[in-house]
Write a structure and sequence with these properties.
- The complex is a heterodimer.
- Chain A is an alpha+beta fold.
- Chain A is 38% helix and 18% strand.
- Chain A contains seven helices and six strands.
- Chain A has helices spanning 5-10, 25-30, 33-36, 40-43, 50-71, 87-103, 177-190, and strands at 17-19, 111-114, 120-125, 131-138, 141-146, 154-160.
- A six-stranded mixed beta sheet of chain A has the order 1-6-5-4-3-2.
- In chain A, a hairpin with a 7-residue loop joins strand 5 (141-146) and strand 6 (154-160).
- In chain A, helix 5 runs antiparallel to helix 6 (87-103) and helix 6 packs parallel to helix 7 (177-190).
- A six-stranded antiparallel beta sheet of chain B has the order 4-5-2-1-3-6, sandwiched between helices.
- Chain B has helices at residues 16-21, 84-90, 104-109, 133-138, 140-154, and strands spanning 39-45, 74-78, 97-103, 115-116, 125-128, 158-160.
- In chain B, strand 4 and strand 5 form a beta hairpin.
- Chain B has five helices and six strands, in the order αββαβαββααβ.
- Chain B is an alpha+beta fold.
- The chains are: A alpha+beta, B alpha+beta.
- Chains A and B meet through strand 2 and strand 3 of A and helix 5 of B.
Chain lengths: 191, 167
């Protein structure tokens, strides 16, 4: 399984890359994800089975359910007196997850978690050492980390311009949840 | 020997590995400097996705991120002074904790130091002073890389799991 290209496509230019509105340059780059990643789907014949497609869809649903669970955390959620999460930041993470789902449907994250400092981490891993994390640190800012090569960990920042203060949380850059779920059904049926 | 046991903290546990390293274990106190050959323990809260057993890197780096209360450094505990099970029992976490074991030499290799710091409630308390909350916020990128490596190492040796946790 060769999937190291995820980070190349998501964001690797060495400087901040900005995600623009739906017709903007940023999104058109993001839309190439499915073409650029040699996906698990293509390396596993059994992936063609609809049951596996359903499993992938379930993975996305599980991550979203975990974020919704995180949103409910009270103070002392980790047993070490940590402060409760900021609901708006969790909502940003949920919206970002929906956005990712629309772009890399066949590659769901394997873990989401709340950090002691209140940021939210979304994580991808594979058995070949592939390890990428996206950390939602602000309403409009995602910090990416590619630790696939532990000797040369790379990081970069993505600015969600549509999510600046004053704009609606789910800005034009992100598809609605309904649209994303409809895409997932269509994808599963296509398999 | 001009030693005041009260100021040197508690003595180490009597166990074969301590006796091998410290034949004079009776003079081995928790304020004594931490040796590279020692093992330390880190508690990882359960139920918050910091440990996922079926992943290649089961421990999230967030388990090693300093909390706001970690003003002087990240807390660990010396295996020579408290067992992993006893440490898990003493945790105030209602959902229970996982306990990871790390070799001090591996921590030092990441560029950290490990210093004793007496905690009246739990014996064998040590800290990684570089991983204090204020410095972590200032040098997040640099320290995050090192923390990631600690989490990777910790994932190889989970020595205690909560009673109802998946294996």
């Amino acid at each position: 399984v060769k999937i190291q290209n995820l980070s190349d496509v998501v964001n690797r230019p060495g400087s901040d890359r900005r995600t623009h509105n739906a017709d903007g340059e940023g999104l058109s780059k993001m839309s190439t994800l499915n073409e650029a990643i040699p996906l698990l789907a293509e390396s596993r014949p059994d992936f063609l089975l609809s049951a596996v497609a359903a499993r992938v869809a379930k993975e996305w649903q599980d991550r979203k359910a975990e974020l919704l669970e995180i949103r409910k955390y009270d103070a002392d959620w980790d047993g070490f007196d940590s402060a409760p999460p900021n609901p708006k930041l969790v909502d940003t993470a949920i919206a970002f997850l929906d956005y990712l789902r629309s772009r890399i449907l066949r590659f769901p994250p394997v873990r989401v978690a709340l950090s002691p400092s209140g940021t939210i981490s979304i994580e991808w891993q594979a058995t070949n050492g592939f390890h990428v994390e996206a950390e939602v640190v602000a309403y409009n800012r995602i910090e990416w980390m590619d630790a696939s090569n532990p000797q040369r960990i790379e990081r970069w920042t993505e600015i969600l311009e549509s999510n600046q203060a004053g704009n609606p949380l789910r800005g034009a850059a992100w598809q609605s949840t309904q649209q994303v779920e409809a895409d997932a059904v269509e994808y599963a049926q296509a398999l | 020997l001009a030693i005041n046991p009260a100021s040197r903290g508690r003595r180490c546990r009597i166990r074969p590995s301590t006796l091998i390293r410290w034949p004079w274990y009776w003079w081995y106190f928790e304020t004594d400097s931490v040796r590279p050959s020692e093992f330390v323990l880190r508690t990882i809260p359960s139920g918050v996705n910091y440990y996922t057993p079926n992943l290649p890197d089961p421990v999230s780096r967030l388990a090693f991120e300093p909390m706001p209360r970690d003003t002087d450094g990240l807390s660990l505990f010396r295996l020579d002074f408290i067992s992993a099970k006893a440490l898990a029992r003493r945790s105030q976490n209602k959902k229970g904790v996982y306990v990871a074991r790390l070799k001090v030499a591996d921590i030092l290799k990441q560029g950290f130091t490990v210093e004793p710091k007496i905690n009246p409630a739990v014996p064998g308390h040590v800290i990684i002073p570089e991983l204090n909350h204020a410095d972590y916020k200032k040098q997040k990128a640099k320290l995050q890389d090192q923390v990631f490596m600690l989490a990777k190492l910790a994932g190889q040796h989970i020595v205690v799991r909560p009673a109802n946790a998946p294996k």
